[in-house]
Amino acid sequence: MTPTRSPVHEAITSRKSVRAFLPTPIEPALLDELLLAAGMAPSGSNVQPWQVHVVSGAARDRLSAALLAAHEAGHSAEREYQYYPLTWRSPYIERRRATGWGLYNLLGIQKGDREAASRQHGRNYEFFDAPVVLVFTIDKDLQTGSWLDYGMFLQNIMIGARGYGLHTCPQAAIANYPDIVKEHLGIGDDKIIVCDISIGYEDTSQKVNEFQPDRMPLDEFVTYHRD
Ligand SMILES: Cc1cc2nc3c(=O)[nH]c(=O)nc-3n(C[C@H](O)[C@H](O)[C@H](O)COP(=O)(O)O)c2cc1C
Predict the structure, then answer these.
(1) Contact 122, 68 (CB under 8 A)
(2) Fold of 11-81+90-211
(3) For residue range 73-100, what is the model confidence (pLDDT) as tens digits?
(4) For a substitution probing ligand 1, which of 157, 171, 211 has the most ligand atoms within 8 Å of its CB?
(5) CB-ligand 1 contact for 124 (6 Å cutoff)
(6) How confident is residue 1, by pLDDT bands cut at 50, 70 and 90?
């Protein structure tokens, strides 16, 4: 039996990381509705560990300029949390490479062209031209369980956005420069910058948005226990 495809299924499967947005602004009331709905995410003991800074207009441009300047000056990352494994190994290293090279191949960036790769990485700090950037913080003293809760909130935003015709790109790149983000948004040192989500309307004319990294087939990540 083929299950009926629901609008929820459509919202989940049409989400992708968009890396070129139109300048079209987002209605503030729509953003509030989306964030309020995302806050319906479950969290252990309903602690709701999420805090969001909605950054647009001149504030967005100032933050972008500061981050881009740090990136271009080659300032080294000073992350507050470890996102990736300390030692890359199979099968993760292959997936990571396939994703990186998949994107660069699509954009015609050759192996060894560090300048072009760095320029593309710098697009993170222009928020891929998205008109609105959602910056997420978590209190430093919260534990791993709250980070699990946090992911559900983030995913609610990205899936919920599809219902309004919006697209998103989650970005851990911003967490490379927590001091700059904190200074610009008045965030205290009792918080960790988790990531941001660039949000807006997709620029469908841009090749970069055609990028679709593969996913594992079911038998690679599901184990059935039936008897
Ligand atoms: C928490 C998180 C952080 C990410 N950080 C970045 C980032 O800094 N820059 C970027 O271009 N993509 C970033 N991504 C997007 C991933 O590369 C992307 O989700 C993955 O390749 C799968 O592609 P898809 O989102 O288009 O399905 C991030 C994704 C997640 C979930």
Answers:
(1) yes
(2) NADH Oxidase (3.40.109)
(3) 998 878 999 999 999 999 999 999 999 9
(4) 171
(5) yes
(6) low
